[in-house]
Amino acid sequence: MHRLMLTKEIERLVRDANFSLRKDVLRLLKRAYIEENNKRAKNALGLILDNARIAKKEKLAICQDTGLPIVFIEIGRGIKISSRVIATIKKSIESGYKKNYLRASGVEPLNRGRPSYKGIISHIEFSDRIKGLRITVLPKGFGSENKSQLKMFNPTAGLEEIEGFILDSVKKAGPDACPPFVVGVGIGGTSDVALLLAKKALLEKLDGPNPDRFLNRWQSKLLKKINSLKIGPMGLGGKVTCLAVKMKKIPTHIAGLPVGVNISCHALRSASLHIQDAKF
What we know:
This protein has 8 helices and 10 strands. It has 280 residues and is of the alpha+beta class.
């Protein structure tokens, strides 16, 4: 694939991620609407669904906060890329935001100043699981990103203690993070890795099973507990505070147990591109 074509494809990804909700998110929102019997909560869910429908039809941003762009670059078998390709990917995300008239939200962290399209966050991973190159764009709004939590547990911490931390994180998020949420949980590694795992968990298919049977059962248990909080859509009460809980874990040090929580609002937006055969 020529770099010019790569740019066009990534600009399309930016558009798709910001204008169209993922199919799994839509399915869960529609299910929540059907099952909800609280009048105010049902009305809020109806407006959320209307907003998603109009945004897709009219090619408008689902949310005015078009997020800080996060790009996951997975380099698989049979492909060679250079730093120039990574730079092209980042510049293409920037041009995709500009061409689609999406809000510039990047600022210098201390002096702040005028917002720009700079500040794209990239994560690069080499993998034998895929052939070629997979690029995923995740526009992360900061109403929910600001509710991220990390706790370095003692290695002796039990499941109930960890559950309490996750539930408390959701309570603290409250209506500010625009529920119903998707809650990503990362367990293990180091402090930074636990939080990254929590964010990567948001990219999993929300209405699909976790390949780890224990985590799959735990996700279901946590989902029920979070929904029992009855924060509800936009904080209006009702059955659905959370659409899904997704968890990922990796080994950690014998002396620690990092747990990260990353919450997404109901407008969980991401889009992926898989290039199997390309020369850059």
